[in-house]
Design a protein that fits this description.
mainly alpha, single chain, two-stranded parallel sheet
């Protein structure tokens, strides 16, 4: 069990954080921006962000532990789900410190996701 890893997380070698925590931080910023844009009067945005992100992490756990469909794209540990959730919470707080327009949050999220995922999916494309 590792706290920080520069490599991929896996069920057999779990890590709280990987480089993908950056994507989770950015997704926390994006999701907070989306909710604040669509529902400007709603007060408990962190709760909604956590619910949506938890659904995503439950999917990861289901695929990894129950379907046992494990490859470089889907092998996620429960420990890393906790780290990813911490990343989303950090993103929520960063958005509140430095709010940006939803349009810019979306552009940053899309570009960073493409950059982060490209090395992992290029083998599946070829």
């Amino acid at each position: 069990m590792r706290i920080i890893s520069k490599e991929n997380d896996s069920i057999n070698n779990p890590s709280l954080t990987t480089p993908f925590i950056i994507i989770h931080i950015i997704s926390g910023i994006w999701l907070t921006s989306l909710i604040k844009t669509c529902f400007p009067k709603y007060k408990n945005i962190l709760l909604i962000v956590l619910i949506i992100h938890t659904i995503y992490e439950i999917k990861d756990i289901y695929v990894s532990y129950y379907l046992k469909y494990n490859n470089v794209l889907t092998n996620n540990s429960w420990l890393n789900s906790i780290g990813d959730t911490i990343g989303v919470i950090i993103g929520y707080y960063l958005y509140n410190l430095f709010p940006i327009k939803f349009k810019w949050a979306t552009i940053i999220y899309l570009l960073s996701s493409i950059i982060a995922w490209y090395p992992h999916i290029k083998n599946f494309i070829n």
